[in-house]
Amino acid sequence: MWVTAFFTEQGTPKTGLTPKVSIWKVSDDSVIVNEQNMSEIGGGFYKFEFSAYDPDLDYAVRCDGGSGLPVNERYSYGGNEGFHDDIAEIQDTLSGIETLIRRILGMSQENYRLFNTTYDVSGQRLAGCTIKLYNNKTDCDNDQNEFATYAMSATYGQNGQLSDYKVTRTV
Q: Which of 19, 54, 83 is a domain's end point?
């Protein structure tokens, strides 16, 4: 995760600084990063790569622009305590979306197969089957690594027209 800070001098973005960053873990008050140099991005912005970042923890961050700045512009600070739950929720949502997209693709005629087909009394109309979805053509061709399975059932009226059709997920 990148920690960024913005520094000004008398309200104007300040370049050419060598700011230092310190990071504390809020849960136990431990210092995780102690006065490490930040790199200049430009236009008054500076960055530090916080490689030890854990999205499940809360951190407090202080960036010191240096003693050459006026006291009221020397420090930039913040934390992630308001965001780590949101980040985890977004990650969970994205994981779920990936699964849904794969299922949509499978049900829209991409990499799926029908098994265990049964027919009505006429022997002409499909009455039921198992549908398996696969990630790719090779898995589909070899009936391996299916990621979803559905049961399909259909019934027909006296005139032979479809009267009920149902597909339910089984796995």
A: 83
Encode pLDDT of 60-90 as tens digits. Answer: 999 999 999 999 999 999 988 666 667 778 8
Domain-ending residue, one of 83, 110, 140: 83
Q: 113: Cβ–Cβ under 8 A, 6 or more apart, which residues?
A: 131, 132, 134, 140, 143
Please give the torsion angle defined by the CA atoms of residues 87, 90, 92 and 98, in that order, rounded to the nearest 10 degrees. -140
List the one residue out of 23, 78, 97, 95 whose CA is nearest residue 54: 23
96 Rama class: left (phi>0) / alpha (psi -120 to 50) / beta: alpha
> Which residue numbers in the chain have pLDDT < 70?
81-85, 106-107
Residue 53 is predicted with a pLDDT of 92
The number of domains in the chain is 2
CB atoms within 10 A of CB 133: 23
CA 102, CA 120: separation in Å to the nearest integer? 31
Residue 65, domain member (yes or no): yes
> How many angstroms separate the CA atoms of 146 and 125, rounded?
26
